[in-house]
Amino acid sequence: MKEKLDDPYKGWGYLINIEDSEGETHQIGICSDKISYNNSFYTADISVSEKITDIYNKLNYPEIDPLS
Q: How far apart are CA 45 and CA 9, in angstroms?
């Protein structure tokens, strides 16, 4: 991470929810050079977003519309 941001960022390219073994949910959002973790916002090298995109595309995971 490069620096922590004071202002929240909206419009994530990827939003990942992870539930740990104790049932607590952790949320990671990624968009370009911005990353959020449990409502804390940071800037990062753009290569982080590119690597996540590459991994996601290799998974060939079907997207699910959360509103349907």
A: 16
- State how far the Cα of 52 lies from the Cα of 8, in Å rounded to an integer: 21
Residues 20, 44, 10, 18, Cα dihedral to 10°? -10
Q: Which residue has the tokens 């968009």?
A: 31
**Per residue in 1-33, pLDDT tens?**
677 777 766 777 888 888 999 999 999 888 888
Alpha carbon distance 62, 33 (integer Å): 25
Instruction: Name the residue with tokens 């990671």.
Output: 28
Give, as one character, the DSSP assignment of residue 49.
H
